[in-house]
Design a protein that fits this description.
The protein is α/β, with parallel strands linked by helices. It has helices spanning 2-11, 13-24, 36-61, 83-86, 99-113, 149-177, 184-190, 206-209, 212-228, 244-247, 261-268, 272-275, 303-312, 344-352, 356-366, 370-378, 385-391, 396-406; strands at 67-72, 78-81, 89-92, 119-124, 197-203, 230-236, 252-255, 284-289, 294-297.
């Protein structure tokens, strides 16, 4: 309402000023002053008229199943695309960039535009279910929350088998209709029983790309999934930690505020010339859908709205893993320590926080894991580095890479750097 009032003041300046002058004069100078209720009623009508085009613009933008993604910063027009055009998405942004809010809004906009018959969702949440907890019982969910790397491998295998099944169905539809059926959109136009699209929301995707097996599975789904209606949303604070070959398979790139200009150019070739005079603020994102970069302002739905929506659209049935899915138990850690939930990229970032130039920025990002990093990093030496990291749950490759790259630069006793 406040925004609408401001718009009214901008468009009807003279009338508004006159109204305010009349309102602000002492009572004795207003012999014909209108009752406050009448003024409020008039303003309410103005707000209704001004606000209506905005709502209409959103509804127009999301027609035909489009997902509302926000507004272009330059034209203020609303942006909406359906998933057959979005395909797989890479969502990047540092802590405080609005990445998580955008992620939530993307889930909300997607699930309210597609019914549970048209859409199935899978959530990968490596923070113990914290990232997506509000959507845990959503009626669209295909699987329980995936919270470990072994379960992620099982879920990705299930999706690969689903892609193989859909491939056979499309071949049969091609023969049946004497028409080339090479994607799920074409299949659904010809068949009486359409196939739902599957959207996989992955938070902290670097936890999967650190493992060769799950990285290969992600690559396979990213390459082939678009034809079979299986799409990925890969979110991370560290886009440069994602292998270039996987980043290259993402059709839609959405990039919020990063730590420095080099992060933009290294991750996606976003150069200073793309920014113009714009200062990236929370909720603002560079957007590209196989075209040049433009800036959007993401939708801002209240968290209470999201919680109510998720509750109203929750399923009363307990979601279970299919019996056909073989879930591998996680490897037992060495030395009795729990498996690592920290990626090598994050561990390197902690090492950088010993430098004064990085301290303030990185401590804000790592505050929730600071103590564990501190304890682990404190006991690393060139002699025990690999064994310690293996004992913490990292792979041989990760341990050797980290020890060779940064342990030799570790401050000696008495040197605290940025701490």
């Amino acid at each position: 309402m406040i925004v609408a009032g401001v718009i009214y003041l901008c468009q009807h300046g003279d009338e508004a000023v006159a109204l305010l002058r009349r309102w602000s004069k002492p009572k004795q100078q207003q012999p014909t002053a209108r009752p406050v209720a009448a003024v409020k009623q008039q303003l309410a009508k103005v707000v209704e008229v001004v606000a209506a085009p905005s709502v209409a613009a959103v509804e127009t933008a999301v027609a035909d199943g489009g997902v509302h993604l926000g507004q272009w910063l330059d034209t203020q027009k609303h942006l909406a695309m359906d998933w057959h055009r979005l395909k797989s998405i890479a969502l990047w942004g540092m802590s405080g960039s609005g990445k998580t809010t955008f992620h939530y809004n993307l889930i909300y906009e997607t699930t309210r535009r597609y019914s549970s018959e048209q859409l199935k969702t899978v959530f990968f949440d490596f923070k113990g279910g914290v990232s997506f907890s509000v959507f845990a019982k959503l009626g669209h969910n295909m699987l329980p929350f995936v919270q470990t790397v072994p379960d992620a491998g099982a879920a990705l295998s299930l999706l690969q088998r689903e892609m193989g099944k859909r491939s056979e169905m499309m071949k049969a539809a091609t023969d049946r209709h004497v028409h080339i059926v090479d994607d799920v959109a074409t299949y659904n136009k010809l068949e009486e029983v359409p196939l739902p699209i599957i959207v996989v929301f992955i938070d902290e995707v670097q936890d999967l790309t650190n493992e060769a097996a799950t990285l290969a599975q992600l690559m396979d789904i990213a390459k082939k999934g678009r034809s079979f209606g299986v799409y990925l949303v890969t979110a991370t604070q560290y886009p440069t930690a994602i292998p270039p070959e996987l980043r290259g398979q993402m059709t839609t790139l959405i990039c919020g505020k990063l730590r420095n200009e080099r992060s933009y150019s290294d991750a996606a070739g976003i150069l200073k010339e793309h920014w113009g005079e714009v200062i990236m603020k929370p909720g603002m994102f560079f957007f590209s859908n196989d075209d040049d970069w433009r800036i959007i302002r993401g939708p801002q739905h209240d968290k209470g709205l999201l919680a109510r929506y998720a509750l109203e659209n929750s399923s009363s049935q307990q979601i279970e893993w299919p019996e056909t899915v073989k879930r591998n138990a996680p490897d037992k850690p060495k030395n009795g320590r729990p498996p690592a939930t920290l990626s090598i990229a994050e561990l390197e970032l902690y090492q950088e926080s010993f430098s004064t130039s990085y301290a303030k920025e990185n401590y804000g990002i790592l505050r929730t894991k600071h103590e564990r990093y501190k304890e682990l990093f404190a006991r690393l030496t060139p002699e025990n580095c690999v064994d310690e990291l293996l004992g913490a749950g990292f792979t041989q490759f990760e341990a050797e890479m980290f020890c060779q790259k940064v342990v030799s630069k570790k401050p000696k006793n008495g040197e605290t750097g940025g701490q």
